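Predicting holo structure, A1CAB bound.
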Amino acid sequence: MINQLLIIGCGNMGGAMLAGWLAAGEDPARFAILDPALPEAPAGVILYREAAEAEAAGAHDAVMLGFKPQQLRSLAPGLQGLTGESVTVCSLLAGITCAQLAAAFPQARGHVRVMPNLAARINKSPVILQEAGLDEGARNDCLTLYDILGTAIWLDDEARFDLVTALAGSGPGFVYRFIDALAGAATELGLDRAAAEQLALATVDGASSLAAASDAGPGDLADRVASPGGMTREGLNVLDEGAALHRLLVETLRATRDKGAELAKGA
Ligand SMILES: NC(=O)C1=CN([C@@H]2O[C@H](COP(=O)(O)OP(=O)(O)OC[C@H]3O[C@@H](n4cnc5c(N)ncnc54)[C@H](OP(=O)(O)O)[C@@H]3O)[C@@H](O)[C@H]2O)C=CC1
Ligand SMILES: O=C(O)[C@@H]1CCC=N1
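Done. Tokens:
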């Protein structure tokens, strides 16, 4: 079991994960934060401002890097005292590989890439994991911890990590853009903006929950919405013309995925 996780950089993503763990009933004492400017920590969670304070406490057996990938090179030297041989280094840093983590924190017990999304806050995030150097026990400990935030899985091929990041880590951003565009389109065609947003959000929520609960795939479900000779087919035809939506999303995921390699190169 991971007894104490030190979250180094607790912004949007680290904060969402911490909120998810606490909402699931985890003991706040199981977590500590190292963040120089975070206004406050949740009740019961220790907040350190400087690495030396966390080092002196020496209470953690894993750290989770929640700062930006572009900060790895400058911050790693100051974190060596927190990443000794009994400590597992977990990283949220998009693009940064296990080999780069191992080079940045060579003394650590093992290295884990973790890719959640913001739905961790409500324990509904996929969490993709990739490790280097972990034994079976440490693998199980990681899976158990991250599974609390939704569904955690090990990826067996790190070459695909940036692609799953684009799909599952960045994915909520694309879905939010879609909901916004759906509401915007209805507004342009005559609906009040507030009503359009409410209807678009409720529709995506219901459609997603139904798909998650259904044995049928999303392609089949789309066809079930389209009554023969009815209205929906006309709209699907617009999305399908020249595989317009498919092509747009291939380009969207490609651009997102490729930025991962760029971030890795800069680190
Ligand atoms: N946002 C998302 O949906 C996802 C993000 N990620 C990854 O999570 C990481 C964080 O992203 P995100 O949460 O969006 O970014 P944020 O900017 O919200 O969070 C980064 C946090 O790190 C803090 N920080 C800055 N410098 C230090 C330091 N020297 N020591 C400790 N903490 C520091 C920041 O403080 P301050 O604000 O004061 O600078 C901030 O609280 C990235 O590596 C990203 O790739 C992964 C999956 C999804
Ligand atoms: O935009 C980013 O780089 C991070 C990684 C996945 C989601 N947010």
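Strands lie at 5-8, 31-34, 46-48, 62-65, 88-91, 110-115, 125-132, 150-154.
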